[in-house]
Amino acid sequence: MGLLASPEIRAGDEAYWRTVREAYTVPTDFTQLEYGWYHPGANRVLAAEMEAMRQGQLRGAHYKRGEMNAEREAARVDLARVAGADPEEVILTRNATEALAIVIRGMPLASGDGIVHSDQDYPSVVEAIEQRARTEGVVAQTARLPLHPHSDDEVVRCFEAAVTPRTRAIVITHVINHSGQVVPVRAVAEMARRHRLQVIVDAAHSFGQLAYTVKDLDCDYLGSSLHKWLGAPLGTGLLFVRRDRIEALQPLFPDTRLPATDVRKLEHFGNRPDSAHRGLREAIRWHESIGTPVKQARLNLLQRRWTSQVRSLPRVKLLTPADPARHGAIGTFAVEGMEPETVARRLLEEHRIFVNAVHHPVVRGVRVTPGLPSSVVDIDAFVEALRSIAR
Ligand SMILES: Cc1ncc(COP(=O)(O)O)c(C=O)c1O
To answer: Distance (Å, rounded) from C-alpha 130 to C-alpha 97?
Structure first.
């Protein structure tokens, strides 16, 4: 395989993916098809994190007062490179919930101002909006999104229908976690700009999986987990704040020492396990050695491998769009006449395959998420198992 192979060719190169799988430790007592919550890092990521933990333990406050800060600044630079941002627009949070709460809670809004979000956003994001609604009279404005949109325009129109003259901001979930649908962020952001809205992107499932930069999305803020598709340690997250939005954003954890224009004012979390930042840097090196376009093509291929085989099963209904531009790794399905938990339980008990039952007012089904160590053999075994359960 030449170095210049296209992402699509590399995505189907099983010999290459066997070497990738060997870089991870995969469970031997079940098949992991729930990489959507947490995509454990490669072995080298854990080794780097543990070494930093060991040094922190050994050197104590000497580490905290010296190396720790240098490590965090280096991680900020690395992360900014992946995001296509300036390091002065990036902070390291502990997860996506925290990153997005900093934005939603800290934006200057008056009573009666609205934030548009969708009916399929992540619960903790909706909770942050609802808290401002309860305490300050901000209005949560819900857009209803289709499960199987026919065009970007259709999605844009759904968001636009929720906008009023008092709307000030919009939250766009790039990849909906329940169904795996990829939302056309750029097209929605263009509509939002026409209405002078601030654009907040929930990139928990897109960062490190889909190939883009923050500039491509034209957003003001972007928050993500890094323990999902970047394969970084638990306890790492990203917040991007466009330079001209930093000054007005109130920190969730107060910091009056730093100038209001310094993005680090948003990062005053107190002590935290900084060893995760060493693991994060190693995860970025590993991520860059594969490349986002190749990861995206591979995860898309694995998703299509099973969805294309089960689509024709009479009792199976897919809740994820078929268009490859509208999905990534995640696919969700329902089996007619069976509770999602029953399907998930039988897959685990009878076939040792681990997936996730989703209970959401709009998406009720079983979510399947392959990861980088997943093989086509894993996927085909899942298809056979589902055939026998959904007969
Ligand atoms: C779309 C989406 N947003 C936000 C989050 C929250 O992520 P975290 O666990 O990093 O706070 C998740 C977690 O699964 C998610 O799927």
So the answer is: 14
Q: What is the pLDDT of residues 185-203, one digit of tens each?
A: 999 999 999 999 999 999 9
Instruction: pLDDT band for 66, please (50, 70, 90 cuts).
Output: confident
Q: Distance (Å, rounded) from C-alpha 210 to C-alpha 375?
A: 20
Which of 122, 228, 358 most suits a substitution to test ligand 1, by most atoms within 8 Å of the C-beta?
122
Give the residue-averaged pLDDT of 92-110: 98
Q: Could you give all domains of the chain from N- to C-terminal order, each with its CATH number? A: 7-32+291-389 (3.90.1150.10), 48-286 (3.40.640.10)
What does the block give as tokens for 337?
């006449």
Give the tokens for residue 215: 């500039």
**pLDDT tens digits along 198-218:** 999 999 999 999 999 999 999
* Residue partners of 16: CB distance under 8 A and separation at least 6: 1, 10
Cβ–ligand 1 distance for 180 under 6 Å, the answer: no
- Predicted local distance difference test score (pLDDT) of residue 2: 47
CB of 167 shorter than 6 A to ligand 1: no
CA 224 to ligand 1 centroid distance, Å: 7
Residue 204, ligand 1, Cβ within 6 A: yes
